[in-house]
């Protein structure tokens, strides 16, 4: 079976996923695309080798030539697009975040549960990265004893003018929020944000960098530096300290260069390069799950829990206080 995919949003990651689906992934093809920017949609359709441009998003989602939906629109539109896919009974891979408010994410949970079968996978691709998988194996296997603390950093080279202070939580930190929940097997119960001196290399409206502090239900403390205009590259760090040792995310394997009196390796510049393998594995697993008729991977519950923590982090940015995260009870459907 070839899964026919409709892509909503043909910006940066939409185009990367279209190329991936067209050249790398087996068992799928992009049959239709939609974007509010018609010129971008036309270009993406051509790159997909003959996909059509849908009249609009609802037409794409309900079309007969679309078996499954890939949502790569802006974060604030995700919940609406996922709800439309669930209403049409179609599997959907939604780039993170699932939503920007906990209430919107809860609407997705309710709709999926009413449908009666899992349809939603959220694009937390770190769960498919070999380094993160190794971290999880070591922690779950007791290799560092009981985890106590986690130190993380999420650095982007630069961010454009559209990027806001809130997005540091909703769009950027949400990766580490999900990864911490997944690595530790515990929910996050509070968030706090401390603002260091701001870099001059940013648009004036943005607070950058930010220190975020989280606590899990079991008392693990997590510190996360989000610095999205660090200038030097795309740098993702994660170290978990346990009672008997620590485990640290490896840098991706890169050849060692010795030249001009120095020894070193190249630093990735963008997310697309750093997580290329993880994206390939993630999207292939999603396509396979659609063909098998049984959703796997990060669920709508994971999307909701991460959104709720990110929303508390946005409140903490504004107030400077420690903000509690009060998750709704986890439905048996997501056990
Ligand atoms: N997993 C990861 O590492 C990454 C995830 N993302 C996520 O992917 C999403 C898209 O990010 P980018 O591609 O960087 O943004 P982008 O701005 O380059 O592309 C988004 C596209 O969606 C379109 N769009 C927005 N709202 C729409 C609507 N209501 N209907 C139809 N089209 C709409 C825009 O016109 C634009 O072409 C974001 O949620 C972001 O968080 C982005 C980059 C990396
Ligand atoms: O998901 C991503 C972007 O949306 C986000 O804006 C960046 O900060 C992240 O590094 C990238 O992985």
UniProtKB/TrEMBL annotation:
Its EC number is 1.1.1.18. Keywords: NAD, Oxidoreductase. Residues 3-124 form the Gfo/Idh/MocA-like oxidoreductase N-terminal domain. Residues 137-325 form the Gfo/Idh/MocA-like oxidoreductase C-terminal domain. The keyword Acetylation does not apply. Belongs to the Gfo/Idh/MocA family. Gene3D superfamilies: Dihydrodipicolinate Reductase, domain 2, NAD(P)-binding Rossmann-like Domain. This is Inositol 2-dehydrogenase. The keyword NAD applies. It is an enzyme of class 1 (oxidoreductase). Homotetramer. It catalyses: myo-inositol + NAD(+) = scyllo-inosose + NADH + H(+). It comes from the Bacteria. Pfam families: GFO_IDH_MocA (PF01408), GFO_IDH_MocA_C (PF02894). Involved in the oxidation of myo-inositol (MI) to 2-keto-myo-inositol (2KMI or 2-inosose).
């Amino acid at each position: 079976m070839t899964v026919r995919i409709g892509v909503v949003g043909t910006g940066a990651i939409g185009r990367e996923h279209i190329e991936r689906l067209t050249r790398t992934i087996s068992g799928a093809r992009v049959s239709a695309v939609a974007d509010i920017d018609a010129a971008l949609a036309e270009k993406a359709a051509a790159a997909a080798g003959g996909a059509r441009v849908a009249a609009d998003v609802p037409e794409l989602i309900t079309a007969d030539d679309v078996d499954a939906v890939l949502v790569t629109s802006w974060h604030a539109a995700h919940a609406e697009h996922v709800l439309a896919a669930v209403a049409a009974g179609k599997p959907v891979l939604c780039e993170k975040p699932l939503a920007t408010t906990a209430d919107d994410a809860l609407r997705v949970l309710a709709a999926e549960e009413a449908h009666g079968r899992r349809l939603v996978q959220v694009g937390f691709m770190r769960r498919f990265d070999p380094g993160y998988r190794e971290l999880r194996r070591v922690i779950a296997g007791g290799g560092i004893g009981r985890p106590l603390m986690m130190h993380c950093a999420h650095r982007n080279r630069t961010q454009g003018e559209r990027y806001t202070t809130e997005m540091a939580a909703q769009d950027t930190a949400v990766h580490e929020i999900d990864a911490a929940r997944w690595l530790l097997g515990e929910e996050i119960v509070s968030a706090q944000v401390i603002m260091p001196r701001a870099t001059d290399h940013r648009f004036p409206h943005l607070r950058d960098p930010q220190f975020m502090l989280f606590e899990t239900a079991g008392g693990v403390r997590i510190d996360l530096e989000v610095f999205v205009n660090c200038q030097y590259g795309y740098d993702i760090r994660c170290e978990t300290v346990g009672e008997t040792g620590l485990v640290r995310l490896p840098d991706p394997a890169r050849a060692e260069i010795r030249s001009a009196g120095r020894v070193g390796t190249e630093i990735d510049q963008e997310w697309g390069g750093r997580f290329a393998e993880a994206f390939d594995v993630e999207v292939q697993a999603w396509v396979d799950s659609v063909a098998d008729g049984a959703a796997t991977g990060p669920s709508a519950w994971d999307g909701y829990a991460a959104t709720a923590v990110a929303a508390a982090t946005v409140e903490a940015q504004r107030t400077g206080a420690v903000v509690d995260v009060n998750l709704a009870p986890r439905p048996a459907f997501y056990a």
